[in-house]
Amino acid sequence: LHPEPPLPVEWGYLLARDEAFRTHAIKSMTGSSGRQRVPSDAIEGYPVVVPPAPLAECFGRIVQPLFKGIRANDEQSRTLAGMRDLLLPKFLSGEVRVSEAEHFMQPAL
């Protein structure tokens, strides 16, 4: 889903997460299992209220920083999971002690 300006990209994402929209899309799917698609005419026929341009732009200014924060948190979570996966076996085996962990991770930081 790629909404047309002035609607921000995030608007399309949030629409796709809406339960009523998802139910409508699932009912419209065609193709064999594993390769099912929703025809574009099924999406085009879905009733949506499009806000006036100033309101859509204001919505974009509000949600874009929130989505940026979500992406940053996701990236940080992946980094921390990687550190955990690297260090936990070393802690459990006794190869590295907790007091040494900060020194051990310096190159990765």
Topology:
Layout: H1 9-17, H2 19-27, H3 40-44, H4 53-93, H5 101-105
Structural features, described:
The chain is an all-alpha fold and 109 residues long. It is built from five helices and no strands. It has helices at 9-17, 19-27, 40-44, 53-93, 101-105. The mean pLDDT is 89.
Provide a brief overview of the structure.
The chain is an all-alpha fold.
Query: Any low-confidence stretches, pLDDT <50, length ≥5?
Result: none
Alpha plus pi helix count:
5
Helix and strand content put the structural class at mainly alpha
In which range does the helix fraction lie?
Answer: 55-70%
- Oligomeric assembly: single chain
Radius of gyration: 22 Å
Mean pLDDT rating: 89
Global outline: elongated
Instruction: Summarize the main sheet.
Output: none
Order of helices and strands: HHHHH
- Terminal CA distance reads 37 Å
Q: How many β-strands, per DSSP?
A: 0
- The proportion of strand residues reads under 5%
